[in-house]
Amino acid sequence: MLKHFKQGLSLKLQIYSLIVFICMLSFSVKVYTDIDSTTDYLESQMASHAQDTATSLGLSISSFLEPSNITIAQTMASAIFDSGYYSSIRFIDGDGNILINLNNPRYVDSVPNWFINFIKLKAPTMVSEVSSGWVIAGNLEVTSHLGQSYMTLWEHTKKTLLSAFIILLVSMIFAYLILQTVFKPLKDVEQQANLVTKKQFTLNHNLPVARELRVVTNALNKMVSNLHKTFETLTNQSENLTKQVYLDSLTELGNRKSFENHYKSVVDFLSDDEHISIMMVQLPSLDSINKSLTYLDGDNYVLSIANILKKSVKELNKSKAFRLNGGTFIFFAQHELSFFKSQYHKISKEIQQKENLKLHVNGIANISIASISKGVSVTSALSLLDTNCTIGELEISIDDKSETSLSVSQWRQLINDIIKSAEIDYSIQPVKKSKTINKQCYFEVFSHFIHQNNKVNNSHLFSMADNLNLTESLDKVIIENFIPVKEQFPNDLFALNISKSSLYSKSFINWLVVLSQQTPILQQNLIFEVNEFDLLHDVDEAKLHIEVLKDLGINVCIEHFGTSLTSFKYLQGLNISYVKLDGSYMQNLTDDPQSQFFVQTVNNICHGFGIKVLACLIENSQTLELVEDLGCDGVQGNWIAKPSKVEKKKYKSSKCMFTFCTETLKFSNYNI
Q1: Is 213's pLDDT higher than 80?
Q2: Domain 408-671, CATH
């Protein structure tokens, strides 16, 4: 109720309330005035009747006022009194003696006592002088009985209430029907406006009869149409740019430029002990097929390998495939080589199964794989892979003793142990507002699972958890254990990453709804970051779950935005708050006009939807200044502020207080 009050009372409710108030006021006034006028009428009637009775009875008994005849006078008075219309009849002679005294107690059986107590009728007493000859013998007093008047008033009141209620009811029904015809188009206008705020552009074809509403509807339709045209134009521009600059037209995989940007955005930011895996696939029979058969056969050859790599990208978390040139592919995986071996063997096996000895005279594919560490240039990596492919080296090209391989059952046991222990380290990195010094969009939270006092590689952990359907459980543990941190800093905005499984899981959404009701702190200043690839799996389903998150007060950010190399039209109707550009677009941004145009286009599109654009991996002042000039709303990177660990400090009360390990820069309430 409070939420609706903050949003404002609807016009419909206000008008209905006004109509009900006016009707009830009219009803009350009508009943009151009708009863009041009837009361006055009855009192005047009783006074007139009592006066007539006093006059006529006085004339009748004037001849029988002698002591010897007083009995006759009393009999005549009793005959009139017994009619029941009088409360009392008294005759007082000139000496003050009461010669006739008749009384009827006030009691009305058929009228409720509350009605008698609520409405007071005054019983009039009328006096008539009685003469005996030329001498005034005394005064005759006649007081009317209220019983008959109350009975008349009670019956009249019931009829008045019934008739007034029927009129009220009929009036309200007519008012409801009339207002419905007015409010329906107004409701359509309101719904259309709400859809626009949710990035959905729909036209209202039901034009209202009312001239004012028709003008508003036409104006809103025109605005929505213009927004939609602008959005279509910008998305088409960005789509064409993406295809021309970053996509291979045949396979729709990323091209060499896309690979180089992605390589630098990952490898340049590896820690000293981290490695990633790269696999090169070359097609040695492509030239012979193009020459001996047709280019269409050569394209089919290329597409068959591309489809295998696309399938593997969907199966392996944090992996991408690229086509560098005619017959050379790259499979990029953010995993240690020992972890990637199983996927490598699976890809090799699927490729070999497609080999046709008559068609592939030089073999179907040459494959080489390498482990890459920080500092290895893209030229060196490609040179190593190309050399191994040329000499036909299909085996792993480096020593893979850096990490002991685990079986599936061992991984399952490891993940279950991590979930049970729920031992997590958190670190944060601020996403700073553009062109400001000490203001943040939010703090991004990084989670690190601890097992036997050692950090577990997150890429490996979540990849195996995804294969074992355990990522949802990991997300739950992260959220539950982050609650104390959120309670410690309720006024700061934090962003947690959630996996693809959680995003599409109804059980996870229901669990989150229940948890947020039990822990209201989750309903304020919280964001979920979702990978763009995960979101594109089923946009319609994701849209429904995002709406639930928004109702809970949790905003959504799409991270690695632009890596899908697809149209941005999916943003239409997606009720999100932020998009975070993939770091690959920040590589050489100052020297790449095409990337600059892409970033600017993304800003134009998203700002038209009311979505804020964030740029990450900012490593120098030139890039920072450029992304701010291009319109980005927020920036993140080591040049802005490095991630800072969140430490738990235990006290005697066994409660934990969370602080951020910080060094130099100041952000929000923390020293970072």
Answers
A1: no
A2: 3.20.20.450
Q: What is the pTM of this model?
A: 0.67
Give the type of residue at 22: I
What are the start and end residues of each CATH 3.30.110.200 domain in the chain?
A: 9-169
Pairing of strands 494-497, 440-451: parallel
Exposed, middle or buried, 642 (CB in 10 Å: 0-12/13-18/19+)? middle
Amino acid residing at 26: S
How many Cβ atoms are within 10 Å of 160's Cβ, its own excluded? 17
Q: 3.40.50.300, 3.30.70.270, 3.10.120.10, 3.90.470.20: which CATH number matches 256-390?
A: 3.30.70.270
Q: How many C-beta neighbours within 10 Å does residue 267 have? A: 22
468 in Cβ contact with 412 (< 8 Å): yes
Architecture of domain 9-169: 2-Layer Sandwich (3.30)
CA distances from 505 to 394, 462, 484, 552 (A): 40, 16, 25, 16
440-451 and 424-433 as β-strands: parallel, antiparallel, unpaired? antiparallel
Distance, CA of 35 to CA of 524 (rounded, Å): 58
Torsion over CA: 277, 268, 599, 643 (sign): positive
- Count Cβ atoms below 10 Å from residue 91 Cβ, excluding itself: 26
- Tokens encoding 517: 């009701």
Cβ–Cβ < 8 Å for 516, 480: no
Specify the 3-state DSSP secondary structure of 428: strand
- Residue pLDDT, tens place only, 48-82: 888 888 888 888 887 777 777 788 888 888 888 77
Confidence of residue 511 (pLDDT cuts 50, 70, 90): very high
The tokens for 614 are: 């964030």
